[in-house]
Amino acid sequence: MSLLPYEYTYLSACLILFVFWFLIFVSRKDLRREMLWASLLGLPFGLIDYFLVPEYWHPESLFGLMKQYGVGIESFLFFSLMAGVVSVIYEFLADRKTKRIKGRRELHLLPLLLGAICFFGLTLFFPAKAIYNFMAAGLVGVLAVIWLRRDLLKQAVASALIFVLFYFVVLFLTFQIFAGVVTNFYNLENMWGILILGIPLEELAVAFFAGAFWSVLYEYVRSYREERLR
User: Fold this and answer.
1) Which of the 8 DSSP states describes residue 97?
2) Nearest residue to 83 via CA among 42, 119, 46
3) By three-state DSSP, how is residue 196 classified?
4) Can you give the residue ranges of every domain in the chain?
5) Distances (CA, A) of 162 to 7, 89, 181
6) Which residue has the higher pLDDT, 102 or 161?
7) Strand locations in the chain, DSSP E?
């Protein structure tokens, strides 16, 4: 039995994410600009929930917005906070910082554009498989970045693995508070059906591919590289 009403599930996950986001933001002044940049860029991606409801999941939310519109306040909060955390989680844990590459000042948006084209193109033909389309978009995006900036490969892989573990903790804590949320929110018959300690494998796969892409997007777009703190 859930300890709290299910309508607070999504919001609770956002609050747990915010705790980690805030701790990183406060403790690493040098990463604040990247975090804010990534969080602001990630905010509109909350609209992805519109493509996931109800085929992938049908969560309850504040004011019933998810049921009525397919997106809610939590959608935008979650994607924004998640983007902010994954963008710096490698630098934070590995004591790294970012530094602008001399002579490179132009913006590079091609990987982001390719990822968007991949997602919407696949969703046009496979609307009921949006979660897998999202994974494919993350994969296409990060491959494009690595092809153009081979030096970001290590950061992308390390960040993806770290973020999967982090995201697992966030979901595990949330699902402990809201018992039975998986069977109530997710359409398991439309999914792989593999649960890891109660967490759908799709969630972890998305964390890996989207995390790999988002973790190096700032460095690529803004022409930065990471180096060890002195």
Assistant:
1) E
2) 42
3) strand
4) 6-228
5) 29, 7, 25
6) 161
7) 96-100, 195-196, 199-200, 224-228
Strand runs (DSSP E) across 75-152, as ranges?
Answer: 96-100
Map residue 207 onto helix, strand or coil. helix
In this prediction, residue 102 has a pLDDT band, given cuts at 50, 70 and 90, of low
Q: How far apart are CA 3 and CA 71, in angstroms?
A: 24
CB count, 10 Å around CB of 99? 12
Q: Tokens 């033909």 label which residue?
A: 125
What contacts 24+ positions apart, CB below 8 Å, involve 20-28? Answer: 20/85, 20/166, 20/170, 21/81, 21/84, 21/85, 24/85, 24/88, 24/89, 24/92, 25/84, 27/92, 28/88, 28/91, 28/92
Cβ atoms of 85 and 207 closer than 8 Å: no
**CA distances from residue 43 to 46, 70, 158, 185 in whole angstroms, order as listed:** 6, 16, 24, 23
Instruction: Quote the CA–CA distance of 193 and 29 in Å, as a whole number.
Output: 42
* Beta strands at 199-200 and 195-196: parallel, antiparallel or unpaired: antiparallel
pTM beyond cutoff 0.85: yes
66 pLDDT more than 80: yes
Contacting residues for 75 by C-beta, under 8 A, at least 6 apart:
10, 46, 47, 48, 49, 61, 66
β strands within 54-198, DSSP E: 96-100, 195-196
